Automatic annotation (TrEMBL):
This is ABC transporter ATP-binding protein. GO terms for molecular function: ATP binding. The keyword ATP-binding applies. The keyword Glycoprotein does not apply. Residues 6-258 form the ABC transporter domain. It holds the Pfam family ABC_tran. PROSITE patterns: ABC_TRANSPORTER_1, ABC_TRANSPORTER_2. It comes from Teichococcus aerophilus.
């Protein structure tokens, strides 16, 4: 039996709430389980509004936070049991984050290309500047950019779309097996969002990399995802094939989310282009 790429077993996360001396505990994630296969790359979306627990889940998958209960396993290894610099570097090579705001992912006083060189030296073993530049340029070309375009430029000299693609390129440098993308298009101009969304699908197919796509936007999730889970108040309320779940939701909350994004002019259907260009809005702010 093949070991899964990523497996969550009844994962929960609890935080202290109500102030420094309060004994109240808040469950941000409750008994979440799912598996990503190692042999078949896919885009797996976690959908939910603010406070649903989706970002807490992403932090645990990235090893930035430890599960309060259950297990997060990457290639069969429990992240909570992984110790030492060598194990951490190996994990970082295989699992890379892409964050919501590209302008916060880069120091405004540091040239963008320097970040790429540092990633190449630290995670690929590039021995000199020439090798670091080659690794950076190769990754940039995978996202439709080049080192010539970025060399010497600071974050504010790039558009939001360019900078997010540079952030994706940076994540690709070590050749990861899994990208964890937390709301990666929410800070991008609406006219450019589908460019990034389509890029993720291309990377899945071309580089054989799986993508954990965290979002509140049903439209992009419908367009990009192979499978999804829908979360509400820390719990998974529905999961399965993305098209099947979003076209014919069964849980009352999933149905409410779908109804909340239908435009007055059109209906939810299999027309990706119509869906992606203005017939829906996100679930952010939707309340049960």
């Amino acid at each position: 039996m093949t070991v899964p790429l990523l497996e969550l077993r009844s994962v929960g996360k609890t935080y202290a709430g109500g102030g420094l001396f309060s004994r109240r505990r808040v469950a941000a994630v409750k008994q979440v389980s799912f598996t990503l296969a190692a042999e078949t790359p896919e885009v797996f979306a976690i959908i939910g509004e603010s406070g649903s627990g989706k970002s807490s889940l992403a932090r645990m998958v990235l090893g930035m936070s430890t599960a309060s209960e259950g297990q997060v396993l990457f290639r069969g290894q429990d992240l909570a049991a992984s110790r030492g610099r060598s194990a951490r570097l190996d994990f970082m090579r295989q699992v890379q984050p892409i964050f919501q705001n590209p302008f916060e992912a880069f120091n405004p006083l540091t040239r963008v290309d320097r970040y790429l060189y540092a990633t190449a030296r630290n995670l690929t073993g590039a021995k000199n500047q020439s090798e670091a530049e080659a690794a950076a340029d190769q990754a940039l070309q995978q996202v439709g950019l080049s080192l010539t375009e970025l060399r010497g430029r600071f974050p504010h000299e790039l558009s939001g779309g360019q900078l997010q693609r540079a952030a994706i390129a940076r994540a690709l440098i070590p050749g990861p097996s899994l990208l964890v993308a937390d709301e990666p298009v929410s800070m991008i101009d609406a006219s450019l969002r589908m460019t990034i969304v389509n890029l993720f699908r291309e990377l899945r197919d071309r580089l054989q990399v799986s993508i954990l796509y965290i979002t509140h936007d049903l439209a992009t999730a419908y367009t990009i995802s192979d499978r999804i889970v829908i979360m509400r108040q820390g719990e998974v309320v529905e999961s399965g094939d993305a098209r099947a779940v979003l076209a014919h939701p069964q849980h009352p909350y999933s149905i409410q989310l779908k109804n909340s994004v239908l435009s007055v002019e059109g209906a939810w259907n299999d027309d990706d282009d119509a869906l992606a260009h203005g017939t829906t809005r996100s679930t952010e702010g939707t309340r049960p």
